[in-house]
């Protein structure tokens, strides 16, 4: 494509190709599943371990609660899946949690969800990559000793990949995701077969005993511990909501296909979760929050040198054998699917930013879809936040998960509550009894979903607030406050610049234009600026030069005369060799003398090709311009002169324009802007749209 | 001054005050001495120590050579002073080494000197501050344990002070410099008195013996060692050349006063140097390159805990007693005068940059005198380089001095050689026998100066290259290469844009203007842009809006009609919600249809007051503008709308304009630009001057 230098052809074919490509990428279910499943399925890699970790506080005996906790998690999972199937049907245009909450519960609820989601994206990156590195570490010990380094490297790698704009395809998602699912199912099947045939399998930690931090817990304390374990297990639910944004990416019937895919994802996740926890209990996996002191080998702590591998790796080792080929395969697939899950956040964060920008909660330029710069900022910001978290928490997925689940459940709860309102509103006008029945059923599902996720949210906050959830809450508050401030700024500005209702009321119309061409030497850029300015037929025209060096000024005056230029040349003295101040003062003087006139200033500018050339040119012009713009009644015209080197930059700009934003495969083709079901949002929300 | 909000008054009185102030600051000799002496006198604080350090390699017995080495240094000092007295007379306009070398030896020699001086400025900061911290450390042990921290803090402090633009006065220089000179002379006098009265004084290291790294040196090795010690002692000569830039700052007769001051400085420096080394030998100061291992206390190394204080501090301790008031006074004055010496580099570096920019070796915007930004960049760069050196070399003045002297002697040698040429040239035309005699005498002095400093340069390179001087040479090469590349770029561009000799030859004159106002919404900024564009009476005028959101576009069209705006509104569709591409394509289409037309594009822009508001506005406008400028035949006009918040920025800009550049007291009042004696420089050298 970039070979076609003929511009019109390039545009035509370029466009045609792009539209085709987008048509092609509408996802069949077999590709949609991996595209949307990596995030939610990958949590299977760390959720079981978190459950065991918390239970270990009450000693190894508490492990027999773990299947029941996973069953509770499965119940929540099915509820959430059932609820989001309603979202998908109600918002086929791809209304995410932010939109559902904004539309049905008002902008504050929407903004809360948005803040929660942003925190969540950051944590998805941090947790997934930390966990991915831990899984790699079970096969490659290098990553155990260089955890933080590895995690930060992957964060940066994903950042660079996304900044460069990798052209995505469903296949890239499909291979690791299906490999992971296949691997886990093989492991479960092979494990069950070996148990059934009487083999005795032992996890690498099976010989250890757990030093219970508080043994013999009973009553309230035990319930609290079980609830904490349950909270940790709920990490498995992250990523389920992603599909509700992605309905437009599905083949028709979009909503139905999306709902089916969602059900499949839920089923897969629960099966894998149950299988892994069952095998973990059977193979006697032992995990502790502080393995160095709380895991005992023949009564003695294992010490700081001990590496606690993830549950999935330990189970795989027990089933397949240490460093066997299937073990390595599964560890690699797990790490890949976790990195893929992190990558989805790199896609989602800028998209959410663009939607928020449309509603003026973020700088409006983030709104323009497919705008590389908008995405770049979001991607770098996300990577930065995630890297900070990873470094602070030593790339320890267990500690990071403490922060994780709050955001997810905030958006679950508000989204489901919003859905109840949605159905209530539609029920007020709907008369078809069949449709009404359907709506009432949906409302019941969403109401239960909202209730259950709200309950989980409370449990998570109660059991985890002091363990780290406060960091997530603080992050949400900061995002919320920032976005509110930005929105307030835009509103204030838009009131300030609103045109008066009666035309002509705004201000006295200017009467004449006085044009000034700034001249330093008589070269081609200056001559071009002069000839353009003359074409504009303003009321008066003069050239202006600052006398910084008398020698140069004399040369200029002579040349001016020799060439017979018919524009008067005015020379301003500058005793301090400044350029900006004399021009500003002169312009202000003109404005004082005739306040109704407009001053139009022409500045010849060089267009260069490299950033370092910018340092060598136009600096005074830019500064002068910046200052001139503060003076009312002035307009500043750049008359560009394209230096030869500018060709390089032109090519770069073209390449940038052909860039395709990451994550486009998840969002589907560009449709008309979201308007469905937004009647409650202020109509001016799209103000940023065409703003230049 | 800043209280006068009435603009014309402020300008008038502001200007008047400034001219007065500059008149007042013409320096009488009693103030000129400290202003220019801090750099050269402060080296007295470290030069003697360096001599002893090197001699210690041959054991304590070699110390008896030290007075002879200082005498050799004194000879060089007097030679250099005598030589520069000729410079001062020949270049009363303040021609520094760079100018002398450029004018007389050509641009390459000039550029070599410039590179050497730049390296030298960086090292002046690093060495002076490191040594200042060491002197402070002799009184306040905190600075011994936190050397690097202290040095970097002082570097940053000076940077901030210079960035903010401290208003200088001769007094600020006078107090510490005279205090230092007074303190040293008191010490020498008191010391001699005590010796004369038979007191036995012992330095704190007098009881130590030196473990000679290579004892019993003889023949060539000894000569080499003595030459190395001499090279180190020559550090005392740095800063002498500074006065040759500063002649315009003196009261009349400028050259004579400058020459007298220079002689005084030389005399003071040599006296202090000799006095200190004599007292050091008498009080048995012991110093070693590696004190921890090479200084022995009763045969045993003193170990890493030992702090080797500077010679001047040890002598002061011997003469005045440890922690006595005169001792503390001298330590403080020494540190202050060293920091002052560093500060002169903060002044000199940007000034040199401005001269180099005038000759197009550096970005031309650095040339504008009194331009805050130009100074800021130079100051930050200097501080950055110095901080890096200080951190790398652990703020160890001894190790830094190894790098120091190369640059100084490169510029000494080239400057003196240039002076010989200068006299040769003048002798060719001069006929007055008295003047000729004078010139021949001056030439002899400069020739001897050039020869001697050249010899020292060779000695320094031979004895110190592997000890660190290679770093300085590398730095010079890098500066040289960068500046050559910048000069080449400017030359290429100026050839590219040079107007053809015959008027009208350059290109076909454009015939008509097609004006386009970019519109997103109908608010005041848009209305202003429309009314301005209408005033310009171009051949055709239309408004252009990008259809990003159909709803918004419809609103815009309705409002357009309701207000009865008499400019046609064109809507461009943008399927990808981009703004830049449709506009660019449209403009290119217009240009294709009528290539001789010029397209004039009006963009309404917001003017805001805070940097973060920039992030919220104008981003699309700026990007669009950047892209439009690549299209030939286009001019882009910003029609500003000043938001209320822009008032804050306007005030800030005014305050910035009132800022006075640091170092102005050393440069004297603004005169006409340097032209004297520049006949050999290419006449276009001042090209950057009025460039905007």
TrEMBL record, chains A, B:
It is found in: Membrane. This is APC family permease. Its main location: membrane. It holds the Pfam family AA_permease_2. PANTHER family: POTASSIUM TRANSPORTER KIMA. It comes from Actinacidiphila acidipaludis. The chain crosses the membrane at residues 65-84, 111-133, 139-160, 172-196, 216-240, 261-281, 327-352, 373-395, 401-423, 444-462, 468-486. InterPro entries: AA/rel_permease1, APC_K+_Transporter.
